[in-house]
Amino acid sequence: MAQTVLSAETGRRSPSDDGPALSGAPSETLLDFPDNRLLIDLCGGFDRNLAQVEHALGVQILRRGNVLAVHGEADAIDRAADALQALYRRLEQGRPVEPGDVDAALRFGAAPAPEPSKRGGPAPESQLEMFAGGRLEIRTRKKTVEPRTRTQRDYVKALFDNEMVFGIGPAGTGKTYLAVAVGVSMWLEGRVDRILLSRPAVEAGERLGFLPGDMKEKVDPYMQPLYDALNDLLPPGHVQKAIAEKKIEIAPLAFMRGRTLSNCFVVLDEAQNATEMQMKMFLTRLGEGGRMAITGDLTQVDLPRGVHSGLRQATRLLEGVKGVGLVRFAAEDVVRHPLVARIIEAYDREQGREQPYEQGRDRAPGRGYDRARPRNAAQEAADEAARETPGKREEGDASPG
After folding, report:
1. Residues contacting residue 169 through CB under 8 Å, at least 6 positions apart
2. Which of 17, 143, 174, 220 has the greatest CB tally within 10 Å of its CB?
3. CA dihedral in degrees (225, 250, 138, 134; nearest 10)?
4. CATH superfamily of the domain spanning 136-388
């Protein structure tokens, strides 16, 4: 059996016998970590982080003092060693290692190496190198947030550098959470006076009249993801206090008409469900000292048949405009759960389209990717009722006139 000793300090391997292990052959690698306190954090409570690596790669990891012995196939051992080294470097910098970080390190280690720069010079750092050494942080009162992927890092930089940023991509890539985090950070630093979070309250037309309760009770269930992000970034009680003082506002898109949003950080979530007219109305609300982040997934448009997404039109018209940033996420940027990325890829294959995010562009209208999604039973029933009572408007319809 070939034995390889790997120092986490140097990252250099020195074979202890005459030759390297053959690819795919069972072998062992010893990883030496000099700081026992950091090694405890690396292993996690009850060695949960090591178990996560073992389960993902099919290796066995044994701890011997300050050394981790990794057993398994040679390729899997290499990936495990790279991931553990990257996580250890994060700990050396005072950054925590959580289960999501372990998953990120494993996925980034499997990602292809970046292509060399066409202009010469050093090759761009890999996803794993950026994850281990990058230090772009968003500080809030409750926690410090940092981007995990290269696209997330570009997105955060764009949010700080541009007045308006579009974040386009699949669910679970952190588009909305990072935008809210940047908004909270800017608000705490005094760079903006308030935060406004918005989304289409009901996917197909914002028709709230048939729901029970007052307007807040009708809208709040659709705004809950935004409340969740705020509560994750600010201490208990701070969110409600800021809302009461009008420092933070959460409102449906239909209520933006006629306003000028100056010195305000505005986030529009689920923007793919804004119509072209609504999107134009929203974008023109930007006032002096204001910032806007618009996020959405163009594969999950829930607008009625024949109604076009304003997000698609806006990104087409505004890409390249000075002061406007556009960042596209891919399935590889999913950080919610590793299964989510596989689900997205499976749906893409089933629908018989190229990976639109990985291609870096959306399909043109009328080519499958842009078509209205099938209507569910509730929508069909509502349409049938409307046909039976022509000309009757829904009671309390809150959609803009």
Report:
1. 151, 175, 297, 328, 329, 330, 333, 357
2. 174
3. 50
4. P-loop containing nucleotide triphosphate hydrolases (3.40.50.300)
Task: List CB contacts of 136: < 8 A, sequence separation 6 or more.
Answer: 146, 147, 153, 156, 157
Q: What is the pLDDT of residues 207-265, one digit of tens each?
A: 555 555 565 666 677 788 888 999 999 998 899 999 999 999 988 888 888 899 999 99
Provide the CATH topology of domain 3-110. Ribosomal Protein S8; Chain: A, domain 1 (3.30.1370)
Q: How confident is the model over 311-328, as a mean pLDDT?
A: 95
In this prediction, residue 257 carries a pLDDT of 86
Task: Calculate mean pLDDT across residues 291-311.
Answer: 92
- Res 141: pLDDT: 86
C-beta separation of 71 from 59 below 8 A:
yes
Q: Which residues contact 270 (CB under 8 A, 6 or more apart)?
A: 199, 200, 203, 295, 296
Mean pLDDT confidence for 96-119: 69
**Under DSSP, is residue 47 helix (H, G, I), strand (E, B) or coil?**
helix
